[in-house]
Amino acid sequence: YITPLPGANMATVPTYTSLPDVYPSVSDLQEVTQRYATICERYTEAYHHAPDFYARAPGRVNLIGEHIDYSGYSVLPFALVQDTVMAVGVSKDRFPDADESRDTRVTLRNVDPKFPEKTFHIQRSITIDHSKHDWGNYFLAAYRGILDYIAAHNIATASHPASIHIMMSGNIPPSAGLSSSSALVCVCAVTVMQCLQLNIPKTEIASLCARCERYIGTEGGGMDQAISFLAESGQAQLIDFNPLQAHPVSLPQGVAFVIAHSLVGSEKHATAATNFNLRVVECKLAAALLAHYMKLDRAKVRKLKDCHDMSGSSFPDMVKAVKTHLHAAPYTLGEISSILGISVEDLQKEYMSSGVKVNAPSYELHNRALHVFSEAERVHSLAGVCKLASTPVTEHGELLNASHESCSNLYQCSCEELDQLTELCRHAGAVGSRLTGAGWGGCTVSMVPEAILREFMERVAKEYPPYQALAQADLASYLFATRPGGGACIYVKQ
Fold this sequence. Notes:
Shape: globular
Strand order of the largest sheet: 1-15-2-3-8-5-6
Strand content: 15-25%
Number of helices: 16
Distance between the termini: 38 Å
Radius of gyration: 23 Å
Structural class: alpha+beta
Number of strands: 15
Helix content: 25-40%
């Protein structure tokens, strides 16, 4: 699914014993310290003993490269300081992997009372009903992914605890396009890995977590999981796939990155059949038709990038190919199957993954492919200008603005509120503003000169109508400046 680079980046998830090491980009740790104290207190109240360790995984903001990771192209995100944290206790009673007669009892609680307590009895085979959108499914998906990894790598030394106690706390705004759901899967995987006394390389656990999301009905590309594990404090990461690699990118000086929530919920999993998963399928079908018309070996083409690589074309060449070979009107499955010379049933088997639901009468292929190729080129353009300190920040901003226009008009993953908010942010002084995350609601990211940051924040807070109903204390969760944070880790309190 995502191929780790053989022999490279075999670094594993780090373990820290001090909060400054966990949050190196946070200058004032008072709020962080209080949060961990609260998690510990709630854990102790629930389980009557202190936790053995904490696991955390951050959310992320994608600067540019939206909806192209699952087509094989590079992306440019950075990790947020906001994260999901689990306080974890593990029983000393353990049993070997070979003993399939026993199970592990997991109790999962959340400091937020709207998430009910969950209890699971984990055996070697885990079945997940992803027709039910339940927060416990994320933990089951991660646990299943770790068990699959043990089986695939024939790890006979894996040791299973009789019980696991967990208290969770998350401060990533939900349904915001900031990867709160992927952060939950990632922190669950780190927790299970530690409880089973495993040490999995970052690139491999990132790939594992990307596969896990299929267990809960979403077919993503791996960006969210990769940045959650490969992030470095103070840096964005240019992430390549197949093989999975991360390259640090220094961001321009003198600008702040501001996250603004549209207050429209972006329910990626709940709307996947008509939004996210549909776009994945449309890109696969576009790749199949381009392979046919460009006389490539369709059996070797799974993603749009495969067409690009196999043809040896440039980005402008691929844009030209889309305009030449794909008509702008929507396609039906019958039309696509007729062009490819296969039945509709075989087309669905080949391009619509089992267990991943899609609901659409027709498929937009021309505009989706145009977005992917143009957005992929913008990613490398932004990474390139970031290397040149002399580049005016207006050039960075123009790339962000062009990305939003493409997301809105070609990929149709924006919404009226996101379009309104990005326009307001530009008028308030941002050199560039775009939606970030899957879209259809959620957040924007804006590049704002630090010299006008305060005025920018005040104007957006005043002029974006949905913010008027928020209390000042609540507004800080939906409109905030951020900086790149570190990746997933384990914290053991000394």
